[in-house]
C-alpha cells in the first residue's frame, strides 16, 4: 500500500485519539509503573530544541484490535533492536512485552503548551512504512530569562499534566506472550478515568 505523508498529517484533527503503548518493563521502576518513565520525553536526535515521545494514531489504526496488533509489533521491533545491539536475544528482564495502551486527544496535547514550550502532534512515519507513527513534540521557545533548569522543569510539568489527561489502560497480552499471560495480567497498570473537558 502506498503511503502519502501529507494525507497522514492531514488526518490529525482536534479530537483524534492518540495511543501510548505500554512496553513492559519500559515505563516501570523497581517493578512498579512509573509515569515519569512511561511518558519520557526525549531530546530529538535531529534538533536539540525539540523533545519527542512516540505515539500512534487510533484514527489511522481504526479499531482496538489493530491498535493492539500495532503494540505487539512495536514490542517485537524493540526486542529486535535490543538483539541487534547486544548480539543476542534479550533475556526475560530486558525483553519488551506489550501490555496495552493509554489514550489522549490531540486537543488535550495542544493545550499543554506553556510560556517555555509549544506542543504539537506530528505525523512521523518510520522507515519500515509505519504510517500510524506520530510524535508528541515539545518546541523550545527562546525566552531570554529562562535557565536550562527552567526548561527542564517545564518539560516535567508538561509530562505530569499529560499523565492527568490519560484514559485507560486498554489491556492486552500478545500471542507471543501467552505463556506469561498470568504474570502479565498481574502487572499493575493504574486506571485513568476518561478526562472531562
Compact overview of the structure:
With 197 residues, the chain is an alpha+beta fold. It is built from 7 helices and 9 strands. It is globular and about 55 Å long.
Indicate the topology.
Elements: H1 5-10, E1 17-24, E2 28-29, E3 32-33, H2 35-38, E4 42-43, E5 50-57, H3 58-61, H4 64-86, E6 97-105, H5 106-110, E7 117-123, E8 133-140, H6 148-165, E9 167-171, H7 181-186
Antiparallel strand pairs: 1-5, 1-6, 2-3, 4-5, 5-8, 6-9, 7-8
Structure characterization notes:
The chain is of the alpha+beta class and 197 residues long. The chain has one domain. Helix content is 34%, strand content 26%. It contains 7 helices and 9 strands; from the N terminus they run αβββαββααβαββαβα. Strands 1, 4, 5, 6, 7, 8 and 9 form a 7-stranded antiparallel β-sheet that branches. A two-stranded antiparallel ribbon has the order 2-3. A hairpin with a 6-residue loop joins β4 and β5. The termini are far apart.
Count of the separate structural domains: 1
Assembly of the depicted chains: single chain
In the predicted model, the low-confidence regions spanning at least 5 consecutive residues are 1-7
Can you write the helix and strand succession as a string?
Answer: HEEEHEEHHEHEEHEH
Helical stretch tally: 7
* Broad shape: globular
Describe the main β-sheet briefly: 7 strands, antiparallel
Indicate the structural class.
alpha+beta
State the separation between the terminal residues, measured CA to CA: 37 Å
Strand tally: 9
Helical proportion, percent range: 25-40%
Strand content: 25-35%
How confident overall, as mean pLDDT? 88
Whole-angstrom Rg: 17 Å
Amino acid at each position: 500500500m502506498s503511503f502519502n505523508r501529507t494525507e497522514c498529517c492531514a488526518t490529525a484533527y482536534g479530537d483524534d485519539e492518540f495511543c501510548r503503548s505500554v512496553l513492559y518493563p519500559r515505563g516501570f521502576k523497581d517493578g512498579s509503573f512509573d509515569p515519569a518513565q512511561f511518558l519520557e520525553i526525549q531530546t530529538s536526535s535531529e534538533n536539540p530544541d525539540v523533545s519527542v515521545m512516540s505515539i500512534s494514531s487510533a484514527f489511522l489504526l481504526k479499531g482496538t484490535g489493530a491498535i493492539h496488533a500495532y503494540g505487539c509489533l512495536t514490542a517485537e521491533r524493540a526486542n529486535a533492536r535490543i538483539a541487534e545491539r547486544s548480539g543476542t536475544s534479550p533475556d526475560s528482564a530486558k525483553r519488551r512485552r506489550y501490555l496495552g495502551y493509554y489514550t489522549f486527544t490531540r486537543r488535550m496535547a495542544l493545550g499543554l503548551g506553556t510560556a517555555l514550550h509549544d506542543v504539537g502532534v506530528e505525523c512521523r512515519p518510520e522507515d519500515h512504512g509505519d504510517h500510524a507513527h506520530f510524535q508528541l513534540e515539545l518546541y523550545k521557545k527562546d525566552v531570554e530569562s529562562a535557565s536550562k533548569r527552567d526548561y527542564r522543569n517545564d518539560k516535567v510539568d508538561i509530562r505530569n499534566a499529560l499523565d492527568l489527561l490519560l484514559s485507560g489502560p486498554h489491556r492486552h497480552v500478545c500471542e507471543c506472550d501467552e505463556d506469561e499471560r498470568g504474570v502479565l495480567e498481574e502487572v499493575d497498570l493504574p486506571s485513568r478515568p476518561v478526562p472531562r473537558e
